[in-house]
Amino acid sequence: RHIFSVDANTQVTWGYETASLDTPQALSITLPNYPDNPAVNSIKAQNRSSDTYFSGRFSLTDALLVQTDFFHQRYTKKVDTSLGLVGYPETFEYGQKEHTESELNKRFGLVYRWGGNRLMRAAYQEWIRPASVSTLSSITTAGIPVDDQLVSPGGRSVRSKVQMEWEWNPSTFTTLYAD
Question: Are 156 and 71 in contact, with CB atoms under 8 Å apart?
Answer without folding.
Answer: no
